[in-house]
Amino acid sequence: MPFPIPHDFTDGFQTAYWRRPEMFLDPAVRAASSTFAQLPGSVVGPAVARLRADLESGEWHRRHAELLTRDAVDYGYRLLIAGE
């Protein structure tokens, strides 16, 4: 069964922040993400700088305005329930 990720999901895995990209500006959030942990700083640093600039200018919100209207997004996660 599909497991859509709500915009305010309290679990801190990477996809949980799909509508809260500012969370990725926090080094502690990035350190807890296996995706960021596996990337070199030479990649993460410029990406975070671009995200910060896009958030400050409003570009991120303009580019992703459609996401901001959603309560949940299906990123392909599935909930499996074992039979009896």
Rg, nearest Å: 15 Å
Main sheet characteristics: 2 strands, antiparallel
Shape: flat
Strand content: under 5%
One letter per element, helices H and strands E, the order comes to EHHHHE
Strand order of the largest sheet: 1-2
**Secondary structural class:** mainly alpha
Nearest-integer average pLDDT: 93
What is the first-to-last residue Cα distance? 17 Å
Instruction: Count the beta strands.
Output: 2
Task: Provide a brief overview of the structure.
With 84 residues, the chain is mainly alpha-helical. It is 37% helix and 5% strand. It contains 4 helices and 2 strands; from the N terminus they run E-H-H-H-H-E.
Tell me what you see in this structure.
The protein has helices at 27-31, 34-37, 41-57, 59-63, and strands spanning 5-6, 72-73. By secondary structure, it is mainly α. It has a two-stranded antiparallel ribbon with strand order 1-2. The longest helix has 17 residues, at 41-57. The chain is flat.
Produce the secondary structure layout:
Layout lengths: L4 E2 L20 H5 L2 H4 L3 H17 L1 H5 L8 E2 L11
Antiparallel strand pairs: 1-2
Features:
single chain; flat; two-stranded antiparallel sheet; 37% helix; mainly alpha; 84 residues
